[in-house]
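Students often ask why we bother encoding 3D structure as a string. The short answer is that it lets us treat folding as translation between two languages. Here is a chain of 133 residues written in the first language.
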Amino acid sequence: MELTEPELTVPELTVLGNTVRHPIEHVEVFAAPANVASVRFVTDELASMCPVTEQPDLSNVVIEYVPDQYCIESKSLKLYLWGFRDRAVFAEALAAEIAGEVMATARPHSVRVTLTQRPRGGIEVRAVAEMAR
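And here it is in the second language, the structure alphabet:
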């Protein structure tokens, strides 16, 4: 009896190719091409709010992951990150939440999120969240 790999069920992409004018709660994924060793997303447009002062916080974020069966669709990532602009969250929690979303949705071998919050009061905050399975 020959063993076969189970077929990969790829979730449907709902935002790519459509006009979406609101944030979304989860990133979307597609089947990972063979031999992709790593994927890296970088943006300096991540906005959130300070949970104490409610002042805006602007951050640079680097998301690096080693895909298994899925890759993250970039438009859905942009719309997911957009959802933080009105959320009060510390930089450390934000980095951890993004890493958790990537791990839960794309199920990569590993993910590393480096979030660098622009200085306010002369202090830059850099938070790194890593997860692996």
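Translate back mentally: The first helix runs from residue 74 to 82. Keep this in mind for the problem set.
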